[in-house]
Amino acid sequence: MTLRSSGDVRVQHNADAPWDSFDPIAYVDHNYRDLQAEDAEILNILREHFGGHFRKQSLGPVYGIDVGAGANLYPAFSMMPWADEVTLFEHSPGNVKYLESQIDSYSEGWDPFWDALCEHEAYAAAEFDPRERFRKVAKVEQGSIFGLERFGGRWSVGTMFFVAESMTADPEEFALGVERFMGALAPGAPFAAAFMEHSRGYPVGEHFFPACDVDETEVRESLEPFAGPFEVQRLKTEPGVRDGYSGMILAHGWRKNTDAEIPAV
Predict the structure, then answer these.
(1) Which helix (H) or strand (E) holds 202?
(2) Is there a contact between 45 and 81 (Cβ–Cβ < 8 Å)?
(3) Which residue in 122, 151, 101 sits closest to 46, CA to CA?
(4) Are 150 and 114 in contact (CB under 8 A)?
(5) Phi and psi dihedrals of 251, rounded to 5?
(6) What are the pLDDT digits (tens) for 81-138?
(7) What's the pLDDT tens digit per position in 30-61?
(8) Which helix (H) or strand (E) holds 50?
(9) Which CATH homologous superfamily contains domain 14-255?
(10) Helix, strand, or coil here: 243?
(11) DSSP structure class, residue 15
């Protein structure tokens, strides 16, 4: 896989970033205070992908994971109608505290994101109060994406939003992050992963965090060894309130299954 160098004399690695100082309140206020057009487009794709998958499957226990959950709840929302448990897997201590604060009753600002999912019949038909459901199934676990290998393919559905390319400027760490995410999923598990295209890094509060410059080709190449079938698409919506990138990329599909045929869309 060919990835562009950051061009810096010293590439900023994941361990170099000030994750202990990540400010989730500032992050949510800047990125998720309102439902942006980009997120609405992502939610539309998510609800079709997961809603279509689980509508066709005979369900046993379903275990979901959102890798690098940060201070974003809507990937977990997309899994919770079918999941017996959703692990919010996060490294930053500040983000862990934020997620824990949302478990009992998440903030009203997240209601439009759940409402957008409910435009699909699979979500609208859910016979539960979303806050009660979130409290029941969501659990927070602190850890590094690079440490997921120890769990094997534990989870039967997974998401990873703005993580692999938004935690490092090192292309090798980006590729390893994608590998660790996909390796945490069971064969045949549906997944969705979002990426900032050509990100130059991003400020959160008083600190600046690194990013790896990737596009559709590089996202596809990072996933190909582990996924199939899958799609990679650049969102039609133009960049909104967020700065320092040229667009968003969403990949969705299934973990490669060597034992049986993966379900078609």
Answers:
(1) strand 202-204
(2) no
(3) 122
(4) no
(5) -110, 140
(6) 999 999 999 999 999 999 999 999 999 999 999 999 999 999 999 999 999 999 999 9
(7) 999 999 999 999 999 999 999 999 988 767 79
(8) helix 37-56
(9) Vaccinia Virus protein VP39 (3.40.50.150)
(10) coil
(11) G
